[in-house]
Amino acid sequence: MLKKLKVKMVFVYIAAVTLASVFFILFSILYSYYRGPSMAYNLLSDLKNSSTERVEKIEKAIHDNNETSIRDIYMPKKLYPGERIQVIKMNGSVLADSDPGFNKNKEATIPLQEAVNYLYLYSKQLWEVKYVDKLPYVVEIKKDGQIWGLYIITIPSSSIPNVDHITSPPGTLFWVISLLITIILIGFILLSVYGRILVNPILKLSGIVEKFAHGNLSARVDFFKRGDEIGTLGRDINVMADNLQDANRKIEELDKARRYMVAAASHDLRTPLTAVLAHAEALENGITENPQQSLSVIHNKGLLLKGLIDDLFELASLDAHQEQWERVRLNLTELVRREVVAIFPKLETAGVEIDIDVPEEEYWVSITPRKIERVISNFLENAQKYGESGNWIMVRVCSQNNWVRVEVADRGSGISPEERERVFDRFYRSDTARTSRMGGSGLGLSIAREIILRHDGKIGVDSPEEGYTCFWFELPMI
C-alpha cells in the first residue's frame, strides 16, 4: 500500500506541475492581451468599421461603371497623423490616394504585392510586425465575385500611442522566473494539503490499532467512506475488528458451553454412578433386603452410563470429523417406515396412537443409513417419551423443491419459543428432572443436528401451538 501512496504522491506532483503550467499559460494570455494586443485589436477594429461602409460604396460605384466618383467616396476624416488611404486596382493603377501629393511620394506607399500579403494581418499578434515602420490595413474590393482592387489604410507606427510599450513582449527571463515560481508555489501548496490529508488519517488509524492492542475491540474507523487507499484500509480495519469481536464472542460462547457441558456431563455421570456404588456397597455389606433389585438397578444404571459415554464419544467423533462415512443411494420413505415399525410395539404398549403419512412415492437421497436411522429413532423416542400425555404421535414424509422432509410431531408438554433456540445445544434440558428420570443423556438432538449437517441438510423444531411439538429434518434429493 505504501508503494501505491508513493505513486499517488508522484501523480499529485505531476498534477501540481500541470496545474501550474495551466495557470502560467492563462497568465501569459491575459498579460499579453491586456499589455499588447488589446490596443492593436482595438485599432484594427476601428479601421475595419470605418472602412466597411466606404468599401461597399466603392463596390457599388464600380458596378455602376462610375470609377470617377471613387475619390469622393474614400476620403474619410483621418484618425491618426500620417494616415494614408489608397484605392489600387489589381493591375497596379492607383485610382485614389489621400496623400496631397497623390501618387508622387512612392516611398510612402505600400507595394501592391505587399498589400496583398498584409490582407489578413489583423489576425496576427502586433509584435509580429513590431519592427515595421507602418501598419497597413487592407480590404478587398470585389466586382462580380472577383477581386477588382484593394482598399489600403496605412498608419505610421510612430502615430500609435505607446507603440514601443505595446509591441514589446516580456523578456524570456521574466517568463522563466514566473513559471518556476508558479510551479514551486502550487506544487508546495498541493503537496502540503494532500500530505495533511494523508497524515491525519494515518495517525487516527495508529490510535485505533493501539486500542485494539489494549483489548478495546469496539473502536472503529469513521472515515472508511473515502475512495482512496486510506478508506480501503479503514474498511479493512473495521472488518477485522468485527471479525475479532465475532471470534471473541464465539470463544466466550464456546467456553461457556464447555463449562456447561463439563458440569452437565459430571452431573449425568455422577448420578447413576452414585446409585451403582450405593447398591454395590449394600450388596457387599449384605444389608440389602432385595439383592436382585439392587443388581437390576446396578445393571440399568450401568447401561445408562454406557449410553452416555457412547454419546460423548460419538459427539467428539462428529466434531473431529474422524470417521469417514460411506454414503449410498437410498429410498428415504422406506427407511422411515422401518423405523416406525421398530418402535411401534413400544407405542402400542404405552397406549400412544400414531398417525403415519408416508407416501408410496420414492424419495431417493444420498446418505449413510445407520446415521439417518439414528436421527429418526431419536425423534421417535423423544416423541414417545414426551408425547405420552397427549397419547398421539404423527410421522410425515413430503417433498418440496428437490428436498425431502421428515416430520415427527407429538402433543405433549410442548416447547416454549425461548427453549426452541437451545433445544439442539449439548446437554440442554427443558426439564432436567424429567429428562434424567426418563434416561435421556441430553446429547441425542445435538448428535442428530451434527449428522444432518454432515449430510448437507437442515434440521429444526416447530411449536405453532401450545402442547404441539414437531421436530423435522430435510435432505436434498438426487
From TrEMBL:
Listed CDD domains: HAMP, HisKA
Transmembrane regions listed in the UniProt entry: 12-34, 173-194
Keyword Cell membrane carried by entry: yes
Entry's Gene Ontology cellular component terms: plasma membrane
GO molecular function: ATP binding; phosphorelay sensor kinase activity
Membrane topology, record value: Multi-pass membrane protein
Record protein name field: histidine kinase
